Amino acid sequence: MTQTAHIDLPDGRKLAYEIRISVKARSLRLKMTARDGLTVIAPKGLNYRKIVKLVKEKQSWILSHLKQFDEVRHLLGEKETACPEAFALPALAETWRVEYWQTRGKTVGARTDRQGRIVVYGAVEDKERCKAALRRWLARHAKEALIPLLKSLADDNRLKFSSISIKNQRTRWGSCSATGVISLNTKLLFLKPALMRYVLLHELCHTLERNHTNRFWMHLRQLEPHTDLLHGQMRDAWKVVPFWAQPIIEGLERL
Question: What share of the chain is helix, strand, coil (3-state, %, to 5)?
Answer without folding.
Answer: 40, 30, 30
